[in-house]
Amino acid sequence: MIRLCDILFSLIGLLLLMPIWLIVSLWIVLDDPGPVFYRQQRVGRGGIDFGLLKFRSMRVGADKMSLITVGERDPRITRAGYYIRKYKIDELPQLWNVFIGDMSLVGPRPEVRRYVDCYTDEQKRVLEIRPGITDYASIEYIDENRILAQADDPDKTYIEDIIPAKIALNMRYIEHQTLGEYLKIIFLTFFNIVRPNKQDTK
Fold first, then answer.
1. 74-83, pLDDT tens digit by residue?
2. What secondary structure letter does DSSP report for 166?
3. Where are the domains of the chain?
4. 78 neighbors 38 (Cβ within 8 angstroms)
5. What percent of the chain has pLDDT over 90?
6. What are the Cα distances from residue 164, in Å, to 114, 118, 169, 197?
7. How many CB atoms lie within 10 A of CB 189?
8. How many other CB atoms are found less than 10 A from the CB of residue 170?
9. Is 34 exposed, middle or buried (0-12, 13-18, 19+ CB in 10 A)?
């Protein structure tokens, strides 16, 4: 039933949001010439890599400098990119990942291989299900970039503090995968995006 909802909701989203896709695409290109989309290899279900899609929010080649972004102070983020990240618009292309089965709307956020290689055997349980666009960890760490911006060593903070905490939250959904929980997380995500004083996210 969850997979059926993924297909239905992602298809509706892809069709209804097409005008927004066109506007955002034009904004990205006019602000900083280069490709509209950014594809990054992430680790999916069963430990298999897939290409995660996003609207490009950083300057071309910026990902080669670091895998961690640190919010407003990160000079690699374009002017348009700051806003599309702030309002989670950069995540919209992942509806295609959901539609073709790489991802689910709800599930653990997929990581790059470098960080997955740091997982313990217990933490690798997050690879048992499809990764998602949102989950409890995404909601709880909606201000993740600000946390990293305040860290002396953002990469170390991410690996030693944030990843274990996020995986612990991931387990809440992994151990209770119901349609009700799925819909609840989607609702909470929308609420956190539109509420006042929202923060940047990773």
1. 788 898 988 8
2. H
3. 2-194
4. no
5. 65
6. 15, 10, 9, 26
7. 21
8. 23
9. middle
- Could you tell me the sign of the dihedral formed by the alpha carbons of 1, 180, 162, 147, in that order? positive
Structure tokens belonging to residue 9: 């909701």
Q: State the pTM of this model.
A: 0.86
Residue 38 to residue 59: CA distance in whole angstroms: 10
Contacts (Cβ under 8 Å, ≥6 apart) of 68: 148, 154, 155, 158
Residue 82: other Cβ atoms inside 10 A? 16
Amino acid at 52: L
Buried b / exposed e along 135-155 (16+ C-beta atoms within 10 A): bbbbbebbebbbbbbeeeebe
Contacts of 46 (CB under 8 A, 6+ apart): 127, 128
Q: CA–CA separation, 9 vs 98, rounded Å?
A: 9
